[in-house]
Amino acid sequence: MSVSVVFVHGIRTSATMWRSQLEYLAARGTDAVALDLPGHGARMAETFTLEGALETIDTAVREAATRGKVLLAAHSMGGLISTSYVGGDDPPPVDGFVAASCTAFPRGLALAAYRLLARRFDALPDRGQWLADRVLDRTLPPETRADFGAGGYAYDAQDVALASLSTLDLLASLHRIQVPVWFINGEFDQLRINEKMFAAAVPQSELYVVPRTSHLVTAMRPAVFDKLLELALLTLERETDPR
């Protein structure tokens, strides 16, 4: 049975962060779609809400499920929200989940400190974009450098999106997940902190750590990420459909 891929972006960025993966899947002949969550990308003028984000993911997943199996692949904030979605009380039609750079519980002092840092960064001239550009110029390869910000940066949605993550009961969601999960982190990713707990909570999970890589694993090591995406696709393509 064919497999379609639904991509969910991280905080501040948009669907354009997945351009490299979309090109890879197009060459492979695999259907794929990359979403813009509320307040991001083409939907920048909208207000971000957790409910709206979940609805966006669900709509795309259910549409893809009409054609066959669904592999949901998500990064950072999108990965945390997608973890809650895949592990919901009523399991959605997702057959596999690639969770990139999203193995930390967004709560307590860590989340508060991150929100404070983001606010201070936002208060810099040009909202700190000059500094972000410098970091991206030095860490991302030329072939993906433009992708991360091509859809614009959702600075106005950032704080409300971060605050909404604290309402997620991710541990409960993880324990409910009954499909294969591939956790993928960069070696230097700050969100690796709870990766072993995340992996232990999902019996059908595998954890991959990409050496010499930051939080932006999809853009920093696109070829490596595509290989892991291929692993997930081959796994689902070889399995019989349980539904």
From TrEMBL:
Limits of the AB hydrolase-1 domain: 5-219
GO MF annotation, one: catalytic activity
Organism of derivation: Microbacterium telephonicum
InterPro entries: AB_hydrolase_1, AB_hydrolase_fold, AB_hydrolase_sf
Name listed for the protein in its UniProt record: Pimeloyl-ACP methyl ester carboxylesterase
